Amino acid sequence: SPMCATACARVCQFPARAPHAMGAKMCCSASDTGDRIEARLSVTDVSTTSSEEHVSLRLREPLTKADIVVVERTWSRALEAGTETLTVTLFKHLFAVAPDVLGLYSFKDEPNTSTSSRLQSHGARVFAAIGTAVNGLANFPGLLPVFKELGLRHVGYGVLPWHYTAFGHALMSTLRSSVGSMFNAAAAIAWSKVWHMLTDAMIQAAVLCRPQESVKKEASTHVLGDFGMHEPLTEEEIKLVQTSWAAAAGLDSETLGLILLRRVFELDPQTKQLIPLQGEPNHFASASLRAHAATVIDTIAFVVSKLDTPEEFTPQLQDLGKLHAGNGVMASHYEIIGKALLKMLEFGLSPNLFNPEIKAAWTKVCQLALTALVTNNYE
User: How far apart are CA 170 and CA 317, in angstroms?
Assistant: First the structure.
């Protein structure tokens, strides 16, 4: 969700740049830690501007009458291109950002999908549904039953939460190319609000319809699979974790977070769809991704700093897990983040700062955090 990074910080109230608040300091030379890690990732500097901060704030606001007017006008202009043209454009963008999604459609085996009658038939239904939403925005609660039912139907098609994110990116790109300068910042914000309101309803309906035992099995098997139950952290293990984290946190939160997310994307490329990248060809130059990356690291730093008093971070992680569940994050994604974190630390720190004993301690931390994130949010 575009609101994810900002909302995480707001819900959990983590201190800004928490790694340095811990008194983090490089415990080994720059060539042994900072350069060792940073050399693996080349990042183009993109400063967070005041206008981007303004956009983040706007996205958290309710849909306004002005937003509705903007959506209606841009939709009317887009329809002038004709649904056939819009359909080809939409699916071209969709398959560009998520090629694997093609396998979900009845026309997947056709040699030229752009001329497929099945594609056009499906596109007609898609744009009819969007039109229903646009025409009903003034009474949004009245739309919820329609889109919840649509979400339930899509479960049977094999649609997953991250697919809605990919489709949203494709829709925004289609609107932008169809109406040109009319799709300005205000239009992008208004359409983003609408899309996430609709997909939240669809995703929640899909999650609720899943058999409870299936959901519980996913939470226990996927998330805790490699991070199974362990004995509580000892004082010595807490010290080992905090010392090794201080060495890694010599880099700023954003840089360290980008390294972590790169590891996550390598383990599961589909997770890219969970973070809005605004169509940028260089994912790691995305202001949204960079902000999210810093928030992830600040969250980890907060947990590490409070390991001796887990009751201080457990409720906040539970709230964070609830927020992410509503934004399409599946229980299995947390296992991926845990694996990526261990890989990042093992790759970036010297052997004396990430030996088997320290890795075992970090594995306990992952299990502790993942349990809090999942508990009551996938049952």
Answer: 32
